[in-house]
Write a structure and sequence with these properties.
Sugar phosphate isomerase/epimerase, alpha/beta, 10 strands, 9 helices, carbohydrate metabolism, eight-stranded parallel beta barrel, globular, IolE/XylAMocC-like
């Protein structure tokens, strides 16, 4: 299933715009685009919501016919327990996280120990934990932890754009992780010369106009055939003013949805 994530509404949620989009507003915008899946990922207000506010948000998603996934950073036991509790509120069956959190950088043995302590509760609840590929942890190291635990409810959230900063090739990341992928983050990316030709900037691109070989990912991972959800997000830099930035963000979202829906 194709879905939208919080990062597809990054600037619309931002305090830099006059009327930041609420979570319910993001749900409604998602449904207006004929999308029925939303990943609440690294959305700071989620963790400060009261129980009543959480129930209200979950009810809004259900009323709109939207399936929810959740996302956080870190694998500390208390964090994973908290997000398993949130998954129950939202009827979510997937939580995306990363090995490193805001205040935690476990070694690989420590990460394995923390995940082993948590995964049985995820298994019992029918929730999958998907760890994202990113530049702070080598893809082979991330896979070594996942493979050591060997649970069907622990796998990879594939984002090949992230690993470029570690000098890994996106295609290699896709091929290494393919058997363990439980979730995909979809965005295009590209390099651009800085002014004066003194280096490059690595950032987002309109889907289909950057360097991402997404047909290769589709062919290698087979998300549609395996029931792996694909979540649209962007690396969109500020475009100089709120209106231009939001207009561009919405355009990138529509373009990405059209691209995914038309890609075999």
């Amino acid at each position: 299933m194709i879905g939208l994530g919080t990062y597809a509404f990054f600037w619309q949620h931002s305090d830099l715009v006059d009327e930041p989009l609420t979570l319910r507003g993001a749900f409604e915008a998602t449904r207006e685009l004929d999308v029925e899946l939303f990943q609440i990922c690294d959305y700071a207000p989620l963790e400060s919501m009261t129980d009543a506010e959480l129930r209200e948000a979950a009810a809004a998603a259900r009323d709109l016919g939207i399936t929810i996934e959740l996302g956080t950073k870190g694998i500390e036991p208390e964090r994973l327990t908290r997000f398993l509790d949130l998954a129950a509120v939202f009827d979510a069956v997937l939580v995306r996280s990363m090995l490193f959190g805001p205040a935690s950088r476990p070694t690989l043995p420590e990460a394995e120990s923390q995940l082993r302590a948590a995964i049985s509760d995820y298994e019992a609840s029918g929730v999958t934990l998907a760890l994202e590929t990113y530049e702070q942890v080598a893809t082979t190291d991330l896979l070594s932890v996942v493979d050591a635990i060997g649970s069907d409810h622990l796998g990879i959230c594939l984002d090949p754009a992230n690993v470029v900063a570690r000098l890994e090739r996106p295609r290699d990341c896709v091929e290494l992780t393919a058997p363990r992928v439980k979730n995909v983050h979809v965005k295009d990316f590209a390099f651009a010369r800085q002014p004066g030709w003194v280096g490059f900037t690595y950032g987002g691109a309109r889907m289909g106009e950057g360097l991402h070989d997404y047909p290769h990912l589709r062919e290698t991972v087979g998300p549609q055939e395996r029931g792996v959800n694909e979540i649209v997000e962007h690396w969109l830099s500020w475009q100089g003013d709120p209106q231009t930035t939001i207009t561009t963000e919405r355009d990138w979202t529509r373009t990405t949805l059209e691209y995914l829906r038309s890609t075999p």
